[in-house]
Design a protein that fits this description.
Length: 200
């Protein structure tokens, strides 16, 4: 029997926040290619943006910039040299805004590989073990494999406007919206289950 004089109210649970990250890089290999643009959009479980960060990234040396993917994202060597945030500052900012939140990305291992490699280059010890991958969730939602699972295809499927493809902030925002639709489609009631679902 509960004593009516006792305070049985529980403190409100801390709200789950997702740090949805997107990177633009000079190529596909984190061992030799570099990040040239990064963005993180922090959303709650209602899809509301509560924080964000984005920047062009300046490599430690101009010689580290490769032109391989410039035709995809449109970020030139001149842009990163003139407007880019120094790599160390950019990495510290992206880790700071992601701390305590559920790391989320589309094809997450790609972004994680680059973030960890760049961190190691500047002496930061950072590892991501739990994360949400919207690519994996999209494949789970499409058990019959009847649709494509690229970010572009998912935006078209869900009617999400993607302002500019292969621009980090635009892609991070679109990924956050895709995440909300996938949570609804998969019927996920506890967002903390998502990292486990992403690894299945």
């Amino acid at each position: 029997m509960v004593n009516p004089m006792e305070d049985t109210a529980q403190p409100p649970a801390q709200e789950t926040l997702f740090a949805v990250v997107d990177l633009e890089t000079t190529g596909f290999d984190p061992r030799k290619d570099r990040i040239v643009q990064m963005a993180a959009v922090v959303v709650n479980t209602r899809g509301e943006v509560v924080d964000s960060f984005d920047t062009v990234v300046k490599p430690e040396s101009p010689d580290q910039y490769e032109h391989g993917a410039e035709h995809v994202h449109g970020i030139s060597r001149e842009m990163v040299e003139q407007n880019g945030m120094p790599l160390r500052e950019a990495m510290e900012r992206i880790w700071s805004i992601s701390e305590g939140k559920v790391f989320t990305a589309h094809n997450a291992r790609f972004d994680i590989g680059f973030l960890e490699a760049e961190s190691e280059r500047i002496g930061l010890s950072r590892k991501i073990t739990d994360y949400v991958d919207t690519l994996a969730l999209a494949r789970m939602a499409d058990s019959d494999r009847t649709r494509k699972h690229s970010l572009e295809a998912l935006c078209a499927h869900y009617g999400i406007t993607r302002e500019r493809a292969h621009e980090a902030r635009s892609d991070a925002t679109a990924t956050a919206q895709v995440l909300m639709r996938l949570i609804e489609e998969l019927g996920v009631e506890n967002p903390l289950q998502l990292p486990a679902l992403s690894s299945e």
